[in-house]
Write a structure and sequence with these properties.
It is built from twelve helices and ten strands. The chain is α/β, with parallel strands linked by helices and about 260 residues long. It has a single domain, classed as TIM Barrel (Alpha-Beta Barrel). The protein binds zinc ion (ZN).
């Protein structure tokens, strides 16, 4: 009776039954892939520190202390104003990459074309005066960037931008319009992996360090600000040493751009 019943299912019900089973199978495969996913062969991590006048001196010195003692690569996105006020501190960064974070830390979305150009020029110039180094990278203050900025960056000879938040492309101008390299800040469920969000707004340093320790993909980029992250100096050092123990390779933004150019 049962057998007859089953074989007499209407076509529509059979189709639904099959679809349901396909759906469950796909779900199981997806979960298995998530649980048993292969570890990437190489894991690269980019650490970056946005340095602006509010950071003062001590917090930047604390960060530099961790970076040099752990012998790790990092990129410092420095405002021109900071380089002007604290040239001796910026000079201490020359063992690492220094990039541009605007001159005055005003949002680029609130400037006209000429003002943007001026900010980029002044930022570069003050960093050059303080360190003798040229810069090739840019991160917009507040991560706010508009459509014309990448084009201006290209005209001014910059090779990459690091302003976007990964996964939030829909609220930013389209990435494919960029003519220069783009190195977005990592995120999880759209929440940027940066200290100002996790330490200042969410007040969840434990969760922040857990996520950035265990996010095992081939490339992650984390954003810190000295005046926030220096309050967690010990945890920052532990985090770097933990990843080094996992054979993670720390590289600067410049190194990543060079690797991409070489097709690595
Ligand atoms: Zn900033």
């Amino acid at each position: 009776m049962d057998k007859n019943h089953r074989t007499s299912l209407p076509d529509e019900a059979k189709k639904t039954n099959l679809l349901f089973r396909v759906f469950i199978a796909a779900l199981v495969i997806l979960l298995a892939m998530m649980i048993f996913r292969d570890q990437p062969d190489k894991r690269y991590v980019l650490l970056s520190f946005d340095v602006e006048p509010v950071d003062g001196e001590q917090s930047v010195l604390d960060v530099l202390d961790v970076v040099y003692r752990t012998n790790t690569s990092a990129t410092f996105f420095v405002t021109g104003e900071y380089a002007e006020k604290h040239p001796e501190i910026v000079k201490l960064m020359t063992g690492r990459e220094i990039a541009c974070h605007g001159y005055s830390h005003k949002a680029f979305t609130e400037m006209d074309r000429e003002e943007k150009k001026e900010e980029l020029k002044k930022c570069r110039q003050t960093i050059k005066e303080a360190t003798g180094m040229g810069v090739i990278g840019f991160r917009a203050p507040y991560n706010r960037i508009d459509r014309e900025t990448p084009e201006i960056l290209e005209q001014e000879g910059f090779l990459y931008d690091a302003s976007y938040i990964k996964g939030l492309g829909f609220i930013f101008p389209r990435l494919r319009e960029l003519k220069i390299g783009e190195i977005p800040v990592s995120s999880i469920f759209g929440i940027p992996l940066e200290d100002v969000v996790w330490l200042h707004y969410l007040k969840m340093p434990g969760a922040f360090f857990y996520v950035i320790k265990h996010k095992e993909t081939d490339l992650e980029s984390y954003l810190f600000h000295p005046h926030h992250i220096a309050t967690q100096k010990q945890e920052l050092e532990e985090f770097i040493n933990y990843l080094k123990g996992q054979n993670v390779i720390f590289i600067s933004h410049r190194q990543l751009i060079e690797m991409q150019d070489e097709g690595v």
